Amino acid sequence: MIEVLSKYLPEHAVEPCFVLIKANRVHLKIVNERQTRHGDYRRGISGKHEITVNDNLNKYRFLITLVHEIAHLVAFEKFGRKILPHGVEWKMTFQRLMVPFIRPEIFPHSVLHLVANHFKNPTASSDTDVHLAFALKQFDERKPDIHFIHEVPSGSLFRIKNGRIFQKKGLRTKRYECLEVGTGRLFLFNANAEVEIIPG
Q1: C-alpha torsion 91→41→20→29, nearest 10
Q2: Which of 46, 74, 76, 99 has a CA 20 to 30 Å removed from the CA of 67?
Q3: DSSP-based three-state secondary structure for 53
Q4: Cα 193 from Cα 133, distance rounded (Å)
Q5: What gap in Å lies between CA 7 and CA 55, rounded to an integer?
Q6: What are φ and ψ of residue 30, in 5° steps?
C-alpha cells in the first residue's frame, strides 16, 4: 500500500495517509477519471469502508481528496449517519484531519497559504475556492490546446469537454458569463474552468 500511495501523494504525506487508511480500515480504490467528482466514500453492504479517488489528480489534489473522503467516514462513525454530508460535523473532522498535512514539507510555498486559508472553513469542494483551485491546477498535466476560461479573449468561441460550444461574454462578480451557441442560453463559468479555444 505504501508503494502505491507514494505514486500519488507528496513524499511526506505517504506515511501519515497510510496510518489514517489503516486506522479507519479503509478499502482504497484508485479509479479512472470521473467528470463529476474527484473521490467518493461509501459504506458497503458488508460494512466495509470503500473510498475511491481519481487516478488523474495531481499529488496535492489527491491528498486533499483522500482526506476529504476519510473525513466523511470518520464524521459518520462519530456523529451518526443522519448528519449532513458536508455539514458542521464533517467540516470540523476535515479540518482536524488536514491540520497535520498543512506544512511546507508537503505543500509548496505557492499553495501552502491558500490551503491554510481554505481550511479555516472548508467547503464541499475545493473547486469552489477559485484561488486554491487555480493554484492546484498549476500542478496538473495540461494539454497545450486547453486553456483556463480567464485566458480566453472576450467574444471568442470555446468548446467544453462534452463538445458544447460557447461564446465568452463578460465577467459577473467572480464568474464569466458565456452564451451557449446552440441554444442562446447564458451560463456562468468559474475562472479556472478548462476549455478549448476555437480558432477564428
Answers
A1: -150
A2: 46
A3: strand
A4: 10
A5: 10
A6: -100, 120
**Angle at CA of residue 154, ends 148 and 158, nearest 5°:** 55
Q: In what order do the strands lie in the sheet with 157-159?
A: 146-148, 194-197, 157-159, 165-172, 175-180, 186-190
CA-wise closest residue to 135 among 99, 102, 109, 110? 110
Q: pLDDT tens for residues 160-186? A: 989 999 999 999 888 899 999 999 999
Query: Measured between alpha carbons, how far apart are the two ends of the chain, in Å?
Result: 49
Tell me, what DSSP letter sits at residue 37? B
Strand ranges, E, within 120-193: 146-148, 157-159, 165-172, 175-180, 186-190
165 neighbors 179 (Cβ within 8 angstroms): no
DSSP assignment of 75-94, as one string?
Answer: HHHHH-TTS-TTSHHHHHHH
Give the three cell numbers for residue 18: 497510510
pLDDT tens profile 43-64: 877 888 999 999 999 999 999 9
Contact between 53 and 65 under an 8 Å Cβ cutoff? The reply is yes
Strand order across the 49-54 sheet: 26-31, 49-54, 39-43
Q: What is the mean pLDDT of residues 153-157?
A: 94
